[in-house]
Amino acid sequence: MQNVRHRYRLWLIGMMIFAALFVSARLSIGSWPMLATWPALEALHTPVQWWQEFSLWFSDKQKLQADYLAFRKQAEQQASLIQEANSLREENRQLRSILDIAGITGYRWHAAKVRGRSPETMSQRILLQVHGVSKDDVIVSSEGLVGVVDSTSAGHATVRTIFDASLAVPVTISGTSLAALARGQGESLSIDFVPEEFVLKSGQVLYTSGAGGLFPPGIAVARINSVTNVPGELFVKVSADPVAHWQRDNWLAVASHLHQPKSQPQTSP
Amino acid sequence: MIAISIALLALLGLSLNLAFSTSLTQPDWAMALLLAALLARRHNWIWVLPAIVIHDVVLHWSVGLSSIIVALAPLAMIYFDQHLGAGLPQRIVLMAIATLSLLHWGWGATAMLLTLCLCVPIWHLLTGLYAQKTA
Description:
The complex is a heterodimer of chains A (about 270) and B (about 140).
Chain A: H1 2-26, H2 32-35, H3 38-56, H4 61-99, E1 106-117, E2 125-129, E3 138-140, E4 145-153, E5 156-161, E6 168-172, E7 180-184, E8 189-195, E9 205-208, E10 220-228, E11 235-242, E12 251-258
Antiparallel strand pairs in A: 1-2, 1-12, 2-5, 3-4, 3-12, 4-5, 6-7, 6-9, 7-8, 8-11, 9-10, 10-11
Chain B: H1 2-19, H2 29-40, H3 45-60, H4 65-83, H5 88-100, H6 109-134
Helix pairs in contact in B: 1-2, 1-3, 2-3, 2-5, 2-6, 3-4, 4-5, 5-6
């Protein structure tokens, strides 16, 4: 009798634990536990940094000089690009004021160091060391779109990459009227709402359209993998891979939204 | 003392997984340590279960299959011990199932194999330590 009661209790405890974990698995806890690990990650990266600095002492002088000259050339090129971007920004501002287009937010670009990545084959979450960012700022690599900032703390931020199913990016192909959505599927992307009349080929690159105002327009997002026509459906089934490969990048760029101050309401006399 | 050491090492492993996930092929250090502790002594579930939930939440932002399997493992051990008698094969099966649950999160095959390879010696070591403690 006692054995039966013991077995009954065992099954009951098992079912309760299973139910509790199943319910909590349906809820997303958020990124703050990953964000809380930044002191440990900083501590682990410190010896690596020391080693890199120490190894410079044994580098060949000529190699260091060549590196220095290459970086200086790169910096000069970057400076001229910044000048060009500034003049274009000013021109854009003037055109906007002439056309009276209001409400379009600008972006401030800055660099962020990658401190941690989730360990899946295709990292879906990233921890960055960065200052002055806020939730929903856009993360970009040198190749294309990476994701958006999910949470921030003092000097650090977590990033939800475009592989995450909760993120939908409005995309288009330049020179067309295509307005589709790129959605994360874990290890690939699916492109939704592509009408049948658009002839897409594998290898074509989709760019952010800027619709919705979250993502700056013109950033490469996905390269089409396969296009399948589904009989009876309005839209074709498109599978794609991200253009950016953030698994190896040590630095990423952050596009922070520059929120325009709201215009003062005019007081009637 | 063993529990605290394993929990701290698991925390270190978790940080290693996050810090060097793409530069080194690594096992799931925390999973291997916690699973080994559970297999060595099923009463350890009381601290292993919260630790595995923390593991899932830190690495994957939600509780998943690995927590559910680790939660059910001690109950399966009690059931198997009652019906088949205490033995290694059923524990090895449980270890393999728990490691395979990493597939759900998208871990690579090499990382899973490394996790298994790490789990076995730690399990052996902990079993010895617990036996010494009771003796």
